[in-house]
Amino acid sequence: MEVKDGGTIRKALLAINCIILSIGNCGGPLITRLYFIHGGNRIWFSSWLQTAGCPIILLPIACAYVHRSRTADPTSENKVFCMERPLFIAAIVLGILSGLDNYFYSYGLSRLPVSTSSLIIASQLAFTAGFAFLLVKQKFTAYSINAVFLLTIGAGVLALHSSSDRPANESNKEYILGFVMTLAAAALYGFILPLVELTYKKAKQEISYALVMEIQLVMCLVATAFCTVGMLVNNDFKVIGREAREFELGETKYYIVAIFSAIIWQFFFLGAIGVVFCASSLLSGVVISVLLPVTEILAVFFFNEKFQAEKGVSLALSLWGFLSYFYGDIKRIKTKKPTPETEMASPLPPNSLESSV
Protein backbone atom coordinates (compact mmCIF):
# COMPACT_ATOMS: atom_id res chain seq x y z
CA MET A 1 0.00 0.00 0.00
CA GLU A 2 1.32 3.44 -0.86
CA VAL A 3 1.93 6.10 1.75
CA LYS A 4 -0.73 8.33 0.28
CA ASP A 5 -3.33 5.62 0.59
CA GLY A 6 -2.23 4.94 4.15
CA GLY A 7 -2.75 8.60 5.02
CA THR A 8 -6.23 8.49 3.51
CA ILE A 9 -7.15 5.38 5.50
CA ARG A 10 -5.76 6.96 8.65
CA LYS A 11 -8.03 10.00 8.22
CA ALA A 12 -11.03 7.79 7.50
CA LEU A 13 -10.31 5.66 10.57
CA LEU A 14 -9.92 8.81 12.68
CA ALA A 15 -13.31 10.07 11.47
CA ILE A 16 -14.95 6.72 12.27
CA ASN A 17 -13.47 6.71 15.77
CA CYS A 18 -14.64 10.28 16.35
CA ILE A 19 -18.18 9.23 15.41
CA ILE A 20 -18.00 6.18 17.70
CA LEU A 21 -16.66 8.36 20.51
CA SER A 22 -19.46 10.89 19.94
CA ILE A 23 -22.15 8.23 20.32
CA GLY A 24 -20.63 6.90 23.53
CA ASN A 25 -19.75 10.27 24.99
CA CYS A 26 -23.27 11.68 24.55
CA GLY A 27 -25.28 8.52 25.13
CA GLY A 28 -23.32 7.03 28.06
CA PRO A 29 -24.05 9.72 30.68
CA LEU A 30 -27.70 9.95 29.62
CA ILE A 31 -28.47 6.25 29.94
CA THR A 32 -26.53 5.99 33.21
CA ARG A 33 -28.49 8.93 34.63
CA LEU A 34 -31.70 7.28 33.38
CA TYR A 35 -30.82 4.28 35.53
CA PHE A 36 -30.33 6.42 38.65
CA ILE A 37 -33.34 8.74 38.36
CA HIS A 38 -35.81 5.88 37.92
CA GLY A 39 -34.85 3.87 40.98
CA GLY A 40 -31.39 2.40 40.33
CA ASN A 41 -28.91 3.01 43.13
CA ARG A 42 -26.16 0.40 42.74
CA ILE A 43 -23.01 2.40 42.01
CA TRP A 44 -20.73 -0.61 41.56
CA PHE A 45 -23.23 -2.19 39.16
CA SER A 46 -23.37 1.02 37.14
CA SER A 47 -19.55 1.08 37.09
CA TRP A 48 -19.50 -2.55 35.97
CA LEU A 49 -21.84 -1.80 33.06
CA GLN A 50 -19.42 0.77 31.64
CA THR A 51 -16.98 -1.96 30.56
CA ALA A 52 -19.06 -5.16 30.68
CA GLY A 53 -19.87 -4.83 26.96
CA CYS A 54 -16.26 -5.56 25.99
CA PRO A 55 -16.98 -8.98 24.40
CA ILE A 56 -18.32 -6.95 21.45
CA ILE A 57 -14.68 -6.21 20.59
CA LEU A 58 -14.08 -9.91 19.87
CA LEU A 59 -15.98 -9.51 16.58
CA PRO A 60 -13.58 -7.00 14.93
CA ILE A 61 -10.60 -8.90 16.41
CA ALA A 62 -11.90 -12.08 14.75
CA CYS A 63 -12.38 -10.23 11.45
CA ALA A 64 -8.79 -8.97 11.63
CA TYR A 65 -7.57 -12.53 12.27
CA VAL A 66 -9.49 -13.89 9.28
CA HIS A 67 -8.07 -11.14 7.09
CA ARG A 68 -4.52 -11.91 8.22
CA SER A 69 -5.09 -15.62 7.57
CA ARG A 70 -6.03 -14.89 3.96
CA THR A 71 -3.33 -12.35 3.19
CA ALA A 72 -0.33 -13.37 5.34
CA ASP A 73 2.56 -15.56 4.25
CA PRO A 74 1.46 -19.22 4.64
CA THR A 75 4.80 -20.07 6.26
CA SER A 76 4.42 -17.41 8.97
CA GLU A 77 2.57 -17.99 12.23
CA ASN A 78 -0.78 -16.21 12.48
CA LYS A 79 -1.90 -15.74 16.08
CA VAL A 80 -5.43 -14.81 17.10
CA PHE A 81 -3.99 -12.35 19.65
CA CYS A 82 -0.84 -10.43 18.75
CA MET A 83 -0.23 -8.77 22.11
CA GLU A 84 3.07 -9.56 23.81
CA ARG A 85 3.66 -9.76 27.56
CA PRO A 86 4.95 -6.17 28.25
CA LEU A 87 1.97 -4.66 26.46
CA PHE A 88 -0.37 -7.10 28.21
CA ILE A 89 0.93 -6.00 31.63
CA ALA A 90 0.54 -2.34 30.65
CA ALA A 91 -3.06 -3.00 29.58
CA ILE A 92 -3.78 -4.62 32.96
CA VAL A 93 -2.52 -1.51 34.79
CA LEU A 94 -4.61 0.71 32.53
CA GLY A 95 -7.61 -1.53 33.17
CA ILE A 96 -7.31 -1.18 36.95
CA LEU A 97 -7.14 2.61 36.61
CA SER A 98 -10.15 2.54 34.27
CA GLY A 99 -12.17 0.49 36.76
CA LEU A 100 -11.42 2.99 39.51
CA ASP A 101 -12.32 5.86 37.19
CA ASN A 102 -15.63 4.16 36.34
CA TYR A 103 -16.51 4.04 40.02
CA PHE A 104 -15.65 7.73 40.57
CA TYR A 105 -17.75 8.74 37.57
CA SER A 106 -20.75 6.56 38.48
CA TYR A 107 -20.74 7.84 42.03
CA GLY A 108 -20.71 11.44 40.83
CA LEU A 109 -23.48 10.85 38.28
CA SER A 110 -25.63 9.19 40.94
CA ARG A 111 -25.55 12.45 42.93
CA LEU A 112 -25.42 15.12 40.20
CA PRO A 113 -27.62 15.97 37.19
CA VAL A 114 -26.09 15.31 33.78
CA SER A 115 -25.68 19.06 33.20
CA THR A 116 -23.67 19.59 36.37
CA SER A 117 -21.65 16.41 35.89
CA SER A 118 -20.79 17.42 32.32
CA LEU A 119 -19.43 20.80 33.28
CA ILE A 120 -17.13 19.17 35.85
CA ILE A 121 -15.99 16.51 33.37
CA ALA A 122 -15.07 19.35 30.97
CA SER A 123 -12.09 20.04 33.25
CA GLN A 124 -10.71 16.74 31.98
CA LEU A 125 -9.28 18.53 28.96
CA ALA A 126 -6.99 20.63 31.17
CA PHE A 127 -5.79 17.47 32.94
CA THR A 128 -5.27 15.70 29.60
CA ALA A 129 -3.26 18.63 28.22
CA GLY A 130 -1.08 18.79 31.33
CA PHE A 131 -0.38 15.06 31.50
CA ALA A 132 0.16 14.90 27.72
CA PHE A 133 2.83 17.57 28.06
CA LEU A 134 4.54 15.68 30.90
CA LEU A 135 4.24 12.11 29.63
CA VAL A 136 4.43 12.27 25.83
CA LYS A 137 5.94 15.74 25.33
CA GLN A 138 2.83 16.97 23.52
CA LYS A 139 3.68 20.01 21.35
CA PHE A 140 1.26 22.90 21.62
CA THR A 141 0.55 25.55 18.99
CA ALA A 142 -1.27 28.84 19.39
CA TYR A 143 -4.37 27.18 17.97
CA SER A 144 -4.32 24.17 20.31
CA ILE A 145 -3.69 26.42 23.32
CA ASN A 146 -6.60 28.59 22.21
CA ALA A 147 -8.79 25.49 21.90
CA VAL A 148 -7.93 24.29 25.43
CA PHE A 149 -8.54 27.81 26.77
CA LEU A 150 -11.93 28.23 25.07
CA LEU A 151 -13.16 24.77 26.07
CA THR A 152 -12.08 25.33 29.66
CA ILE A 153 -13.76 28.76 29.75
CA GLY A 154 -16.89 27.13 28.32
CA ALA A 155 -16.94 24.75 31.28
CA GLY A 156 -16.42 27.66 33.65
CA VAL A 157 -19.39 29.51 32.18
CA LEU A 158 -21.57 26.48 32.87
CA ALA A 159 -20.48 26.51 36.49
CA LEU A 160 -22.01 29.95 37.09
CA HIS A 161 -25.47 28.52 37.78
CA SER A 162 -24.72 24.89 38.59
CA SER A 163 -26.26 25.14 42.06
CA SER A 164 -29.72 25.61 40.55
CA ASP A 165 -29.53 22.05 39.21
CA ARG A 166 -29.07 20.47 42.64
CA PRO A 167 -31.72 17.78 43.34
CA ALA A 168 -34.21 18.91 45.99
CA ASN A 169 -33.95 15.73 48.07
CA GLU A 170 -30.15 15.69 48.24
CA SER A 171 -28.09 16.88 51.20
CA ASN A 172 -25.26 19.35 50.88
CA LYS A 173 -22.76 16.65 51.92
CA GLU A 174 -23.96 14.25 49.20
CA TYR A 175 -23.82 16.99 46.57
CA ILE A 176 -20.27 18.02 47.52
CA LEU A 177 -19.09 14.40 47.62
CA GLY A 178 -20.59 13.84 44.17
CA PHE A 179 -18.79 16.95 42.93
CA VAL A 180 -15.45 15.75 44.32
CA MET A 181 -15.82 12.24 42.92
CA THR A 182 -16.70 13.58 39.46
CA LEU A 183 -13.69 15.89 39.54
CA ALA A 184 -11.51 12.92 40.55
CA ALA A 185 -12.94 10.97 37.58
CA ALA A 186 -12.04 13.83 35.22
CA ALA A 187 -8.49 14.05 36.58
CA LEU A 188 -7.92 10.29 36.45
CA TYR A 189 -9.19 9.88 32.89
CA GLY A 190 -7.16 12.94 31.92
CA PHE A 191 -4.18 10.90 33.11
CA ILE A 192 -5.27 7.63 31.47
CA LEU A 193 -5.47 9.03 27.91
CA PRO A 194 -1.82 10.26 27.77
CA LEU A 195 -0.77 7.06 29.53
CA VAL A 196 -2.35 5.06 26.71
CA GLU A 197 -0.47 7.19 24.18
CA LEU A 198 2.76 6.63 26.13
CA THR A 199 2.10 2.88 26.06
CA TYR A 200 1.84 3.01 22.27
CA LYS A 201 5.10 4.93 22.00
CA LYS A 202 7.03 2.66 24.38
CA ALA A 203 5.71 -0.62 22.98
CA LYS A 204 8.37 -2.92 21.58
CA GLN A 205 6.05 -4.27 18.91
CA GLU A 206 4.29 -2.66 15.97
CA ILE A 207 1.00 -1.05 17.00
CA SER A 208 -1.77 -1.90 14.54
CA TYR A 209 -5.44 -1.10 14.94
CA ALA A 210 -6.12 -4.79 15.61
CA LEU A 211 -3.65 -4.58 18.48
CA VAL A 212 -5.37 -1.44 19.75
CA MET A 213 -8.61 -3.40 19.98
CA GLU A 214 -6.80 -6.15 21.90
CA ILE A 215 -5.49 -3.56 24.36
CA GLN A 216 -8.99 -2.19 24.78
CA LEU A 217 -10.36 -5.70 25.37
CA VAL A 218 -7.83 -6.42 28.12
CA MET A 219 -8.38 -3.01 29.72
CA CYS A 220 -12.15 -3.52 29.82
CA LEU A 221 -11.91 -7.10 31.09
CA VAL A 222 -9.66 -5.99 33.96
CA ALA A 223 -11.87 -2.98 34.72
CA THR A 224 -14.93 -5.25 34.72
CA ALA A 225 -13.19 -7.69 37.07
CA PHE A 226 -12.25 -4.77 39.34
CA CYS A 227 -15.89 -3.64 39.50
CA THR A 228 -17.08 -7.23 39.95
CA VAL A 229 -15.07 -7.43 43.16
CA GLY A 230 -16.75 -4.20 44.28
CA MET A 231 -20.17 -5.68 43.46
CA LEU A 232 -19.41 -8.81 45.47
CA VAL A 233 -18.27 -6.81 48.49
CA ASN A 234 -21.34 -4.56 48.22
CA ASN A 235 -23.74 -7.53 47.66
CA ASP A 236 -24.99 -6.01 44.40
CA PHE A 237 -25.67 -9.39 42.77
CA LYS A 238 -28.19 -10.25 45.48
CA VAL A 239 -30.06 -6.96 45.05
CA ILE A 240 -30.24 -6.60 41.25
CA GLY A 241 -33.33 -8.81 40.88
CA ARG A 242 -35.28 -6.85 43.50
CA GLU A 243 -34.11 -3.53 42.07
CA ALA A 244 -35.29 -4.59 38.61
CA ARG A 245 -38.77 -5.44 39.95
CA GLU A 246 -39.00 -2.06 41.72
CA PHE A 247 -37.65 -0.05 38.75
CA GLU A 248 -40.07 2.77 37.89
CA LEU A 249 -40.05 2.01 34.16
CA GLY A 250 -40.66 -1.71 34.67
CA GLU A 251 -38.52 -4.82 35.08
CA THR A 252 -38.09 -5.42 31.35
CA LYS A 253 -36.94 -1.87 30.69
CA TYR A 254 -34.52 -2.17 33.62
CA TYR A 255 -32.61 -4.90 31.81
CA ILE A 256 -32.91 -3.06 28.48
CA VAL A 257 -31.31 0.00 30.10
CA ALA A 258 -28.55 -2.19 31.54
CA ILE A 259 -27.79 -3.88 28.18
CA PHE A 260 -27.75 -0.66 26.18
CA SER A 261 -25.66 1.02 28.87
CA ALA A 262 -22.97 -1.64 28.42
CA ILE A 263 -23.06 -1.28 24.62
CA ILE A 264 -23.06 2.51 24.48
CA TRP A 265 -20.23 2.89 26.99
CA GLN A 266 -18.16 0.48 24.93
CA PHE A 267 -18.52 2.93 22.03
CA PHE A 268 -17.02 5.62 24.25
CA PHE A 269 -13.96 3.65 25.35
CA LEU A 270 -13.23 2.15 21.94
CA GLY A 271 -13.64 5.54 20.26
CA ALA A 272 -11.43 7.32 22.80
CA ILE A 273 -8.57 4.85 22.53
CA GLY A 274 -8.97 4.81 18.74
CA VAL A 275 -8.61 8.60 18.49
CA VAL A 276 -5.48 8.41 20.66
CA PHE A 277 -4.09 5.81 18.23
CA CYS A 278 -4.98 7.76 15.08
CA ALA A 279 -3.95 11.19 16.39
CA SER A 280 -3.15 12.02 20.02
CA SER A 281 -4.51 11.96 23.57
CA LEU A 282 -5.00 15.74 23.33
CA LEU A 283 -7.34 15.41 20.34
CA SER A 284 -9.27 12.70 22.17
CA GLY A 285 -9.68 15.11 25.09
CA VAL A 286 -10.77 17.90 22.74
CA VAL A 287 -13.45 15.72 21.11
CA ILE A 288 -14.76 14.64 24.52
CA SER A 289 -14.90 18.24 25.75
CA VAL A 290 -16.60 19.69 22.68
CA LEU A 291 -19.36 17.09 22.99
CA LEU A 292 -20.18 17.93 26.60
CA PRO A 293 -22.49 20.89 25.76
CA VAL A 294 -24.24 18.59 23.27
CA THR A 295 -24.83 16.18 26.15
CA GLU A 296 -26.18 19.14 28.13
CA ILE A 297 -28.74 19.91 25.41
CA LEU A 298 -29.78 16.25 25.21
CA ALA A 299 -30.20 16.18 29.00
CA VAL A 300 -32.49 19.21 28.75
CA PHE A 301 -34.53 17.44 26.08
CA PHE A 302 -34.79 14.00 27.72
CA PHE A 303 -34.76 14.87 31.44
CA ASN A 304 -36.25 18.40 31.38
CA GLU A 305 -33.13 19.87 32.97
CA LYS A 306 -32.85 23.65 32.85
CA PHE A 307 -31.11 25.29 29.90
CA GLN A 308 -29.84 28.69 30.99
CA ALA A 309 -28.25 31.20 28.65
CA GLU A 310 -24.87 30.16 30.08
CA LYS A 311 -25.25 26.73 28.47
CA GLY A 312 -25.77 28.33 25.08
CA VAL A 313 -22.65 30.47 25.55
CA SER A 314 -20.73 27.37 26.61
CA LEU A 315 -21.83 25.53 23.49
CA ALA A 316 -20.66 28.41 21.29
CA LEU A 317 -17.27 28.60 23.05
CA SER A 318 -16.82 24.84 22.76
CA LEU A 319 -17.55 24.84 19.03
CA TRP A 320 -15.18 27.78 18.59
CA GLY A 321 -12.44 25.92 20.44
CA PHE A 322 -13.05 22.77 18.43
CA LEU A 323 -12.82 24.65 15.12
CA SER A 324 -9.69 26.45 16.33
CA TYR A 325 -7.96 23.15 17.00
CA PHE A 326 -8.73 21.71 13.59
CA TYR A 327 -7.96 24.95 11.74
CA GLY A 328 -4.52 24.96 13.33
CA ASP A 329 -4.01 21.29 12.43
CA ILE A 330 -5.03 21.87 8.80
CA LYS A 331 -2.77 24.92 8.57
CA ARG A 332 0.15 22.92 10.00
CA ILE A 333 -0.34 20.16 7.41
CA LYS A 334 -0.45 22.65 4.53
CA THR A 335 2.69 24.50 5.64
CA LYS A 336 4.68 21.33 6.24
CA LYS A 337 5.29 19.26 3.14
CA PRO A 338 5.01 15.57 4.02
CA THR A 339 7.95 13.28 3.38
CA PRO A 340 8.15 9.47 3.49
CA GLU A 341 10.06 9.72 6.77
CA THR A 342 7.53 11.95 8.52
CA GLU A 343 4.63 9.94 7.17
CA MET A 344 6.09 6.72 8.51
CA ALA A 345 6.58 8.42 11.86
CA SER A 346 2.89 9.33 12.09
CA PRO A 347 0.79 7.81 14.91
CA LEU A 348 -0.79 5.36 12.48
CA PRO A 349 1.76 3.71 10.11
CA PRO A 350 0.15 2.66 6.81
CA ASN A 351 1.57 -0.85 7.07
CA SER A 352 -0.13 -1.26 10.44
CA LEU A 353 -3.47 -0.44 8.92
CA GLU A 354 -2.93 -2.75 6.00
CA SER A 355 -2.14 -5.65 8.30
CA SER A 356 -5.02 -5.01 10.69
CA VAL A 357 -8.00 -4.29 8.45
From TrEMBL:
Entry-linked Gene3D superfamilies: 1.10.3730.20
Q: Name one Pfam family in it.
A: PUNUT
Q: Where is this region: Disordered?
A: 338-357
**What sections of the protein cross the membrane?**
12-31, 43-66, 87-105, 117-136, 143-163, 175-196, 208-234, 254-277, 282-303, 309-328
- Which InterPro entries is this protein grouped with? EmrE-like, PUP_plant
User: Keywords of this protein's UniProt record, alphabetized?
Assistant: Membrane, Transmembrane, Transmembrane helix, Transport
Please verify whether the record's keywords include Flavoprotein: no
Compartments in which it is found:
Membrane
Q: Name one GO molecular function term.
A: purine nucleoside transmembrane transporter activity
Coiled coil regions in record: none
Where does it sit, as one GO cellular component term? membrane
Question: Does the record bear Transmembrane in its keywords?
Answer: yes
Q: What is its main location?
A: membrane
* Lipid bilayer topology: Multi-pass membrane protein
Q: Which PANTHER family match?
A: OS09G0467300 PROTEIN-RELATED (PTHR31376), PURINE PERMEASE 2 (PTHR31376:SF1)
Q: Into which family does the record put it?
A: Belongs to the purine permeases (TC 2.A.7.14) family.
**Name of the protein:** Probable purine permease
